[in-house]
Amino acid sequence: MEKIPMTRAGFAALDAELKSLKSVDRPAIIRAIAEAREHGDLSENAEYHSAREKQSFIEGRIKELESVISLANVIDPSTLSGPIKFGATVTIVDEDTDEEKTYQIVGEPEADLEKGLLNIKSPIARALIGKDAGDSIEVRTPGGEKSYEVLSIKYV
């Protein structure tokens, strides 16, 4: 299996979610299923079916997190420098609208565009890899071609 690049913060967040699912959510749903069973006929027991569905989701998420964590290649961006690569925090400006955006290039499991965490496999991140401050990039987006200029690169 291929290793999954991840920042230290991303790894810690996934690990915390896994621990919470195992120590809080799993025991709670087991109690909820036991309570629902006490209500009698399971074939018409909506609480029981709902609890079983939630248990299935929790168990699936636990398996997914365990798999991702086992394949994690934790990279500390503060030890890196130079052109843009995984872990870089990049400020870019849209050359058409002068709108500035700052993103950190992270692994797929920790990506969250609203928090400025850009998936390394995204078109913008792929275009940024290897570039330096002052370089321009062209990115094909669903809304058409976009041009950005790299303003700054930081490794935090």
From TrEMBL:
Belongs to the GreA/GreB family. The gene is greA. NCBIfam families: greA, PRK00226.1-2, PRK00226.1-4, PRK00226.1-5. The keyword Cell inner membrane does not apply. Residues 83-155 form the Transcription elongation factor GreA/GreB C-terminal domain. Gene3D superfamilies: Transcription elongation factor, GreA/GreB, C-terminal domain, Transcription elongation factor, GreA/GreB, N-terminal domain. One of its GO terms (molecular function) is translation elongation factor activity. Keywords: DNA-binding, Elongation factor, Protein biosynthesis, Transcription, Transcription regulation. Necessary for efficient RNA polymerase transcription elongation past template-encoded arresting sites. The arresting sites in DNA have the property of trapping a certain fraction of elongating RNA polymerases that pass through, resulting in locked ternary complexes. Cleavage of the nascent transcript by cleavage factors such as GreA or GreB allows the resumption of elongation from the new 3'terminus. GreA releases sequences of 2 to 3 nucleotides. This is Transcription elongation factor GreA. Transmembrane segments: none annotated. The keyword GTP-binding does not apply. SUPFAM superfamilies: FKBP-like, GreA transcript cleavage protein, N-terminal domain. It holds the Pfam family GreA_GreB_N. Residues 4-74 form the Transcription elongation factor GreA/GreB N-terminal domain.
